[in-house]
Amino acid sequence: PPGFVREIVGISSDVRFYGLFWESSPEVYLPYRQMPVSAVNIVASVTGDPSEFVRVIRADVGALGRAIPVYRAGKMTQMIGRTAASERFYMVVLGIFAAVAATLAAVGIYGVLSYSVARQATEIGVRVALGAGPNDVLGGVILDGFRLAGLGLALGVVGWIVLSRLLIPLLHEVGTADLPTILGTVLVIATITFLASFVPARKATRVDPMVTLRSE
Questions:
Q1: What Rg do the C-alpha atoms of the chain give, in angstroms?
Q2: Packing angle between helix 134-163 and helix 179-205, nearest 10 degrees?
Q3: Which of 13, 81, 134, 143 is the most exposed, having the fewest neighbouring CB atoms within 10 Å of its CB?
Q4: Whole-number average pLDDT of the chain
């Protein structure tokens, strides 16, 4: 209102007062004696285990008056954890689904490559008979696996960038196209692809060209 004057004694950083997933808004801190309220939050910075000081703070507040109740006392990490409990649950569920999807991807790649190696037994036998070494066969089968996984990764990254916008409400200070996350996912898929390709590739190196050609 007109004529309302306050002395500014400091400026604080942005504050997410209502929770991590709320946008910061303008805040003004006033002395309690100038604007008394029915409830206040006490934040104390301590050294050592914070839980040891909860009892001390309760005693100090109780010394001001027996009618002053103290509730929801705890560590700051616990307070922040409560505000993100539902989002953390959703991310745990998504993480479980991601682990299941990665397992299915590994099983699928292994199955497809095993079938491909079985179908190419004659071709591999001819290559071995013509002088192809174990490393040549091993590298060829693993390369086929990475070609298959590379196509899936390309489609997956595009789908991630498009559909990840739906996850914005669940993300805190993480972009939908976060480069370290994408690179980490690609690395995990590449590792799974290599491990899933190695077993059928090793089987391919043991193909006996004479047995294969005779069976044909």
A1: 31
A2: 150
A3: 13
A4: 75
